[in-house]
Amino acid sequence: MKKISLLGATGSIGIQTLDVIAAHPEEFKLVAMSFGSNYKSGSEIIKKFKPQFVAVKDKETYDHLKQELSGESVKIGYGQEALIEAAVFDGVEILVNAVVGSVGLIPTLKAIENKITIALANKETLVTAGHLVTEHAKKYNVDILPVDSEHSAIFQCLQGENVKSIERLIVTASGGSFRDKKREELVDVTVEQALNHPNWSMGAKITIDSATMMNKGLEVIEAHWLFNMPYEKIDVLLHKESIIHSLVEFHDRSIIAQLGSPDMRVPIQYALTYPERLSLPEVKGLELWEVGKLHFEKADFNRFRCLQFAFDSGKIGGTMPTVLNAANEEAVAAFLKGSIKFLQIEEFIERAMDKHVCIAQPGLEQIQEVDQRTRKFVQTLIS
Ligand SMILES: NC(=O)C1=CN([C@@H]2O[C@H](COP(=O)(O)OP(=O)(O)OC[C@H]3O[C@@H](n4cnc5c(N)ncnc54)[C@H](OP(=O)(O)O)[C@@H]3O)[C@@H](O)[C@H]2O)C=CC1
Ligand SMILES: CC(=O)[C@@H](O)[C@H](O)COP(=O)(O)O
Ligand SMILES: [Mn+2]
């Protein structure tokens, strides 16, 4: 029985992780969890899975949840300290980090210090401070197992392979909600249109990231850190069906790919059972004759400028990916609120990056300071 802590339990990845846990009650036990402020959904989960500890975002949510749960024996906390407490709760063996945004960084670092295996969906953590997280994981000899579908695919393709034989990683991209639109057609697109992803049902922030292709940019940086791969050896391939989740080319020109129906329960479960596999009867098997044609296109960096910014920031390194991530988080939140237009997301990210004087090899405090400063700068642009 593996003891699991789940951060972001009420979200898209969180709920699918709970599906996997519920499908194998003899294998997994949820002992701690967190969510932001959705106390209605949170209290349902708590009643069903009976974790021992729950962290919520703020005091207001804490008070609501206490009321919903009167009579239940569960310890509740709020704020960052509670989020850390949930991550390292007594006996936790795997932390599924499925919060959205760089708020996931500190709990990940603390869990690593406690020798807890990390199943990582929260890609912003690796983007904002990839060198700190990977150095920490090495120091404490802790595995970071990918949950993101592309990285799980690459990880699966690499099983039994010598990483020295890798020619390049090929990360596939659906192209998002606006993949068939020209750049000039993006001027007046709405939030509702942007949230309409063709293949995946996901949280709002990642769905917008997918529409700007920043999601793919974040994934390139994520792949750089997870697989210790130079940016020159990471390619992005447009593949609109999201059936091939990513590929690895080796020196002998052999390419290995991982395929499957677009269903996040597969990579989530693989991270929880690795190196074993368990059945997943609810996931639709893939019949390629049903799919028919698969399509591939070269990624156009002028059309998808966020992809270019992500490669640029990754290659510059230091605090530049922190700026990319913080500016993106603020701009996407503003777009979702209706305060800015779609194309202003990339405009504000570019302006934040242009203004930033990069710090090489930053420590945690410098990362946090740059993150906060960038958010304030973008908020000024928004207002
Ligand atoms: N969805 C997907 O299919 C995929 C997602 N990912 C990555 O996984 C992560 C989660 O994505 P997704 O599940 O879609 O996101 P959602 O928005 O659906 O869920 C986010 C979760 O985090 C909680 N949360 C939000 N803000 C805070 C905060 N400040 N403090 C504590 N908890 C917070 C939310 O709580 P509440 O509900 O109360 O607001 C919710 O439980 C992201 O990094 C994303 O990029 C990667 C691959 C695929
Ligand atoms: C399911 C998943 O891993 C997402 O990150 C997905 O990849 C988004 O799709 P695109 O960014 O390719 O549109
Ligand atoms: Mn992905």
From TrEMBL:
Its EC number is 1.1.1.267. Residues 259-376 form the DXP reductoisomerase C-terminal domain. Its cofactor is Mg(2+); Mn(2+). 1-deoxy-D-xylulose 5-phosphate binds at residues 123, 149-150, 174, 197, 210, 215-216, 219. Residues 144-227 form the 1-deoxy-D-xylulose 5-phosphate reductoisomerase C-terminal domain. Keywords: Isoprene biosynthesis, Magnesium, Manganese, Metal-binding, NADP, Oxidoreductase. Residues 4-130 form the 1-deoxy-D-xylulose 5-phosphate reductoisomerase N-terminal domain. InterPro entries: DXP_reductoisomerase, DXP_reductoisomerase_C, DXP_reductoisomerase_N, DXPR_C, DXPR_C_sf, NAD(P)-bd_dom_sf. Gene3D superfamilies: 1.10.1740.10, NAD(P)-binding Rossmann-like Domain. It holds the Pfam family DXP_reductoisom. Pathway: Isoprenoid biosynthesis; isopentenyl diphosphate biosynthesis via DXP pathway; isopentenyl diphosphate from 1-deoxy-D-xylulose 5-phosphate: step 1/6. GO terms for molecular function: 1-deoxy-D-xylulose-5-phosphate reductoisomerase activity. It is an enzyme of class 1 (oxidoreductase). Mn(2+) binds at residues 148, 150, 219. Coiled coil: none annotated. It catalyses: 2-C-methyl-D-erythritol 4-phosphate + NADP(+) = 1-deoxy-D-xylulose 5-phosphate + NADPH + H(+). It comes from the Bacteria. NADPH binds at residues 10-13, 36, 38, 122, 124, 203. SUPFAM superfamilies: 1-deoxy-D-xylulose-5-phosphate reductoisomerase, C-terminal domain (SSF69055), Glyceraldehyde-3-phosphate dehydrogenase-like, C-terminal domain (SSF55347), NAD(P)-binding Rossmann-fold domains (SSF51735). Catalyzes the NADPH-dependent rearrangement and reduction of 1-deoxy-D-xylulose-5-phosphate (DXP) to 2-C-methyl-D-erythritol 4-phosphate (MEP). Belongs to the DXR family. This is 1-deoxy-D-xylulose 5-phosphate reductoisomerase. The lineage of its organism: Bacteria, Bacillati, Bacillota, Bacilli, Bacillales.
